[in-house]
Specification:
It is a single chain. The strands form six sheets. The protein has a five-stranded parallel sheet with strand order 2-1-3-4-5. A four-stranded parallel sheet has the order 14-15-16-17. Helix 11 packs parallel to helix 13 (393-405). The termini are far apart. By secondary structure, it is of the alpha/beta class. It has helices spanning 7-10, 50-53, 57-67, 82-90, 120-130, 172-187, 193-203, 282-286, 295-309, 327-337, 354-363, 381-386, 393-405, 424-445, 475-490, 507-516, 522-531, 545-555, 563-567, 588-599, 617-621, 642-651; strands at 40-46, 72-78, 109-113, 145-149, 165-166, 213-217, 223-228, 237-238, 266-269, 271-272, 291-292, 313-317, 344-346, 371-377, 410-417, 451-458, 499-503, 582-583. Bound molecules: iron/sulfur cluster. Residues 275, 288-289, 607, 612-618, 625 line the site of iron/sulfur cluster (SF4). It holds the Pfam family Radical_SAM_N2.
């Protein structure tokens, strides 16, 4: 069946909406393929506005991996702003892809990548605009399979009613495996309709299909058990782990945005996973083990990506980039290669140690020394032991001292508020640290214009972390502590004016907490919020706490649970958690022990440099830590003179 572009109908309406360029498509390195000759068609969605969604690495990687196969077609779609939604509804224009402006409802599969749970209401808008029934059980063979991925998919239960399927972990291989299943099923004439297709996906063991699992509850509201209701589907669904990153050097051709976006640079992921063991960090826990890209692949990716896109800024990405075993060689090699060119390099690493400053010095050879960011996360030494962030005050002062001595004028420090066992003193300790940072900066640089910006995020307990059992702090307590901190900084005559304080109020974190650790009953709340106008909940100007509170009260009125039950309640060891049937590889007993260690303020080392401490991931997933050094060198780049190449090799 021919699928027409919606653009001729859309174009005359664009002058009426904000930033119309975001809906136009045609970016450098975007792809439009023939519809009819493609056997499997994916619409890939990032459920936020184009300016946030376009730079998303996960979507860009899958877009390219899928489109490289001649039998697969993949296009992108983003959340449309409320003004555009209005225009689309008034003109009966369905949710469309930006590549060929095809209706999302015509694709075989809609893959949605969730980095944050606050994007859930945007999923409902997109489904509704696409003409896809919100509830999976109401969909027919005419509708795409709606599949979630990304970090939030490690507990997709709050949106289980709206999803046909979810995948956990790295997407590169599994999207191809899913495509194969769809291709085969279609080639057979789509036997058994979407139910059979979903069954085949579920039976593969790597795709979670919520409708094949029943949840039973205890009278007090806790979960009694989650069990498959179809023979042939596994009791537990496991995450996917890509073991050889060098074999998957994506994105090869980064998309170049047409409209302004939050990042305008080419990012190369230098390793995946993190074993530092910060107890609050879901990303670190669920992406284990560490798998490094080799220095040579990194060098090739940087060069090829710059050539393919024209970007002049390159970010070396990962959860803790300074931890790459050959980061010194990578930084020096790239800095040498691009010395004197327009290419600027950055390492958005936040590790607190002086080596990080050395790396930043190296990478900033072509640029300005404006600001450096470090993340102690906890204000007091005690707090940092609880969260397993092994940074002493001495480490921090030594690090900032090196930074200021090397000409950096501004240091940014990241902290969290609302952490388990936190007291007012732990948060007020942030002001003391900031004062010491300024004092050190003035002393080593001999200047008065030293700045320190303190940025504070609200802590949200996340599934598959040791804090998954913790009580979330109430927003009232978080706001009260932050107010005390602000007062302490303002009242400081000697240093207060040199310290900038940035934070958000605590209410959005409570809703993020509800959505992070919620179960299937929370789906009713999300739907009620959406029906009441909830959109773009990750944006403070669109977020309404009252709307969520009202929806919780209404949608959960018949249940023995409420907003507090999901958020500020501590869970017991034996309680069945909504995500217990979803396997991130971490051993539940190890997570519990780590939670107890947190309460006892006991730290755990990084298994990259110490023996394995049995978190369970490697044996359960059949994986291993993969770190260098490889002893390789960056390859000289084509187009550089022979003499310069030899100089580069001699130096590296
Ligand atoms: S199983 Fe051992 S080596 Fe593997 S990530 Fe866990 S602690 Fe590290």
């Amino acid at each position: 069946m021919a699928v027409e572009s919606l653009f001729p109908r859309l174009e005359p309406l664009l002058p009426a909406v904000q930033k119309p360029i975001q809906y136009v498509g045609g970016e450098l390195n975007s792809t439009v393929k023939d519809w009819d000759s493609s056997e499997v068609r994916w619409a890939l969605m990032y459920p936020d506005a184009y300016e946030v969604g376009l730079p998303n690495q996960g979507v860009q990687i899958l877009y390219e991996v899928l489109n490289e196969r001649d039998w697969i077609l993949a296009e992108r779609t983003y959340a449309v702003w409320p003004d555009m939604e209005k225009v689309m509804r008034a003109n009966a224009i369905p949710q469309f892809t930006v590549d060929a402006h095809r209706p999302v409802g015509a694709f075989d599969i809609l893959g949605v990548s969730f980095s944050t749970e606050l994007g859930y209401t945007n999923l409902l808008t997109a489904l509704d605009l696409a003409g896809i029934p919100l509830e999976a059980r109401e969909r027919t063979d005419e509708h795409p399979i709606v599949l979630a991925g990304g970090h939030s998919a490690f507990n997709p239960e709050p949106i289980a009613d709206f999803l046909d399927a979810a995948v956990l972990g790295d997407g590169e291989e599994v999207v191809l495996a899913i495509s194969e299943v769809i291709r085969e099923w279609k080639a057979e004439g789509s036997p058994g309709g979407r139910d059979e297709l979903l069954f085949r996906l579920a039976a593969s063991g790597g795709v979670y299909v919520p409708k094949f699992y029943d949840v039973e509850y205890l009278p007090d509201g806790r979960i009694k058990r989650v069990a498959p209701n179809r023979s042939g589907v596994p009791w537990r669904v496991v995450k996917h782990t890509l073991m050889d990153l060098d074999q998957w050097p994506y994105p090869k051709k980064p998309l170049v945005p047409l409209a302004e976006t939050v990042h305008e640079r080419f990012s190369v992921e230098i390793f995946r996973g993190c074993t530092r063991g910060c107890r609050f960090c879901q990303a670190g826990m669920i992406t284990r083990p560490v798998r490094e890209r080799s220095i040579r692949t990194i060098g090739d990716m940087v060069q090829n990506g710059i050539e393919a896109s024209g970007f002049e800024e390159v970010g070396l990405l990962s959860l803790s980039s300074a931890d790459h075993s050959e980061i010194g060689e990578v930084a020096k090699g790239l800095a040498d290669r691009y010395d004197g060119s327009n290419v600027s390099l950055s390492l958005p690493s936040t590790r607190v140690d002086a080596f990080n400053v050395t790396l930043a010095n190296e990478l900033s050879r072509n640029g300005r020394r404006s600001g450096l960011t470090f993340a102690p996360e906890g204000g007091s030494e005690r707090m940092r032991k609880v969260i397993n962030k092994m940074v002493s005050e001495e480490d921090l002062i030594r690090t900032v001292s090196t930074a200021y001595a090397n000409g950096w004028r501004q240091v940014k420090l990241y902290f969290m508020c609302g952490l388990p066992t936190e007291s007012d003193e732990d948060v007020l300790a942030i002001a003391d640290l900031a004062r010491k940072v300024i004092a050190t900066g003035r002393e080593v640089s001999g200047r008065k214009d030293i700045r320190c910006t303190v940025s504070i995020g609200g802590f949200v307990p996340k599934p598959h972390t040791p804090f998954q059992w913790a009580a979330q702090e109430s927003w009232e307590n978080v706001d009260a502590r932050l107010a005390k901190l602000r007062a302490a900084i303002r009242e400081d005559r000697a240093y207060g004016k040199s310290i900038g304080l940035r934070y958000h109020d605590g209410q959005p974190s409570v809703i993020e907490g509800l959505l992070s650790r919620g179960d299937r009953r929370v789906g009713r709340v999300i739907r009620a919020v959406w029906a009441d106008g909830g959109r773009f909940d990750g944006w403070s100007e669109h977020f309404s706490y009252d709307r969520w509170v009202t929806a919780c009260a209404d949608a959960l009125a018949e249940e023995p649970v409420d907003l507090d039950w999901y958020t500020t309640r501590e869970r017991g060891e034996t309680e069945v958690l909504p995500w217990d049937h979803l396997d991130a590889g971490l051993d539940r007993e190890w997570l519990w022990e780590d939670w107890q260690d947190a309460l006892d303020e006991v730290e755990v080392e990084d298994c990259r440099w110490t023996p394995c401490f049995d978190c369970g991931v490697c044996p359960q997933m059949g994986t291993e830590i993969q770190v260098g050094p490889t002893g390789q060198q960056l390859l000289p780049i084509v187009g550089v003179s022979q003499t310069r190449q030899q100089e580069l090799i001699a130096q590296s």
